[in-house]
Design goal:
Number of helices: 8
Number of strands: 14
């Protein structure tokens, strides 16, 4: 290979890799979105309160709080709901103090938890963007990112009192949907017209991919270009996993920290 060709390869490839968009798995429903210009966390800061589901490693939390690569700058932290396998108020308070650039978007229930649990709450207050239970889209534009959010009831009658937000993020020309623990009921999603325009990546609780009416919601209402299953239990669920493989053979099931998809 000529010296000119080698030079061109070395010149081109770093820029190609840098511009790549990726979603990396942290734990349970916790993910890290990276695009060329923005970094976003969703449901990513909590401990192992619920041992059934995976939690961020101690090392990952340390890297996050120390602003180590790739977490030097986090534009947004989104929280879908205030369950402790998605959100720990004290840990989120610590994270926000470490990252003064980060805006938090979350249900008002999560804000209330931070007020009660986080030290020096007053210093964090300007960056806490609380959400009411609105079943239609609410639009926010923070840190150069468009976030549409709507209240969709949490699955399971025992959880109806816990406010669950879904997020439709538009960043660097891409659309990413995260459902949190939304109830598997098509009537919640029909008014939201999710598939117009198309969604690049949908992050959806794994049981939606295995059982009706979740399958119908994905195929007929969400229609994502890429499908990622989240909230998979640590002990595994082989029966459901087989159904997922049968129904959506191209879907990615996040099971281990560090898994990622490009989009």
């Amino acid at each position: 290979m000529s010296n000119l060709k080698i030079f061109l390869l070395l010149f081109i490839f770093p820029f190609t890799a840098f511009s790549q968009h990726s979603i990396s798995y942290i734990a349970n429903e916790g993910i890290f979105i990276q695009t060329e210009h923005k970094s976003i966390l969703i449901d990513a800061i909590f401990d192992n309160y619920y041992e059934t589901y995976s939690s961020p490693s101690v090392q990952t939390i340390r890297h996050l709080n120390a602003k180590e690569t790739p977490y030097q700058i986090i534009d947004l932290l989104l929280v879908t709901h205030a369950h402790l396998d998605h959100f720990n108020p004290e840990m989120v308070g610590t994270f926000l103090r470490s990252h003064p650039e980060t805006e938090l978007i979350c249900p008002n229930q999560a804000v209330d938890s931070i007020v009660k649990m986080a030290n020096n709450f007053e210093s964090l207050a300007p960056r806490l963007n609380g959400l009411d239970t609105n079943p239609t889209w609410e639009a926010l534009f923070l840190k150069g990112v468009s976030v549409h959010t709507a209240y969709v009831r949490h699955g399971g009658k025992q959880n109806y009192a816990v406010d669950n937000q879904i997020y439709l993020i538009k960043v660097d020309g891409k659309k990413i949907l995260h459902l949190g623990d939304a109830e598997m009921d098509p009537s919640h999603f029909t008014p939201l017209h999710l598939s117009k325009p198309p969604i690049d990546v949908a992050l959806i609780p794994y049981w939606f991919l295995a059982y009706p009416p979740g399958i119908d919601i994905i195929k007929n209402q969400i229609k994502p270009n890429k499908l990622v299953a989240i909230h998979y239990p640590k002990v595994g669920d082989p029966k459901t996993l087989k159904k997922i493989r049968d129904n959506f053979p191209n879907a990615v099931v996040f099971m281990k920290e560090g898994q990622s998809v490009d989009f």
